[in-house]
Amino acid sequence: MENYFKIIPIAEDIYHLYEPGGVGSTLIIGKEQALLIDTGYGFADIRGTVAYLTSLPVRVVNTHGHTDHAGGNRFFHKVWMNPADKATYKDYQKHQKPLIAARFEGIRKAAGKRDIWPEDFDRMAWYQADTEEFYWLINGQTFDLDAPADLYDQTFEFDAPKDENHLIEAIFIPGHTVGSVMFFDWKSHILFPGDDLDYSLWMHFNTSAPLYTYKNNLKILERYPIEGILPAHKKQLLSPWILKRMPIAIENLSIEKSRRFFHPRTGEPGFLYKEPLMGESPDGIDTIYITYQTNNM
Ligand SMILES: [Zn+2]
Questions:
Q1: How many Å lie between the centroid of ligand 1 and the Cα of residue 215?
Q2: Which CATH architecture has domain 6-292?
Q3: Residue 268 C-alpha to ligand 1 middle, in angstroms?
Q4: How confident is the model at residue 154 (pLDDT cuts 50, 70, 90)?
Q5: Percent of the chain at pLDDT above 70?
Q6: How far, in Å, CA of 71 to CA of 202, rounded?
Q7: What are the Cα distances from residue 23, in Å, to 68, 70, 95, 137, 265?
């Protein structure tokens, strides 16, 4: 259990807690409080790993409602989320959890490996577990990690001096899901996009924003001094380059250049486009993958 989460240091006081299911949650530690971005699948209690890294009060936010980012909400009393992802969260709670468990079981059995969850994992409790209480995020809201937690609860700061305190800003970028939120750290200048920006971009969900709307939404990020990007499913920091390159890949995409795609778990149909990068990427990644639906462009 102790090694269930791999602790990956990203920058000073920033840790990516990566779990065997292939997803990471990020802990950012300030002077007075810490922020946990996402909570993982919830197969194991992420709170213990967080407590090992900091004794400060911890606020918890979700980048979106998918279970691999919000499944561990059950270990915390209150979690912040964009209300636009409430429906996605509920759908995953009700319908996707059994499919997720079955798929992991199948994959592990086929590979002759043990299950992905720890030995004391109670599957029925996990199916039924829900977020105790949500706080609804507001676009542009900041969390000040240098401010005492007890003074903070009902405070929203939009125009606080960004160089004096350790502010993390919530930026709404509908894309991967309509309620996807990216978080920008004004101290480290790292962007935490969840699943909303990566070399593999999944946009074929019924709850994804239209593809070209997403492409336009990325322009919002131009005013932020982004120096690195940490997608939830990556284990290391990416260059901001992908932010400039993604809109071009979306422009280049067409049905003729795509192939039929079915979501490996749900069978949801869509299209898959692959954009070869010919050695351009400073991250050493050779392809951008985009899944999408033709009726949601
Ligand atoms: Zn997702």
A1: 17
A2: 4-Layer Sandwich (3.60)
A3: 14
A4: very low
A5: 94
A6: 19
A7: 7, 11, 20, 23, 16
Q: How far is the CA of 40 from the centre of ligand 1 (A)?
A: 11
Query: Ligand 1 center to residue 20 CA distance, Å?
Result: 16
Using one digit for the tens of pLDDT, what is the confidence trace for 176-188? Answer: 999 999 999 999 9
The answer to whether the beta carbons of residues 50 and 76 sit under 8 Å apart is: no
Spatial distance between the Cα atoms of 47 and 36, rounded to a whole number of angstroms: 10
CA dihedral over 71, 63, 190, 165, signed as positive or negative: negative
Cα of 128 from ligand 1 centre, angstroms: 20
202: part of which helix (H) or strand (E)?
strand 200-203
Among positive and negative, which fits the CA dihedral 186, 191, 192, 195? positive
Q: For residues 121 and 43, is the Cβ–Cβ distance under 8 A?
A: yes
Report whether pLDDT(147) > 90: no
DSSP assignment letter at 175: S
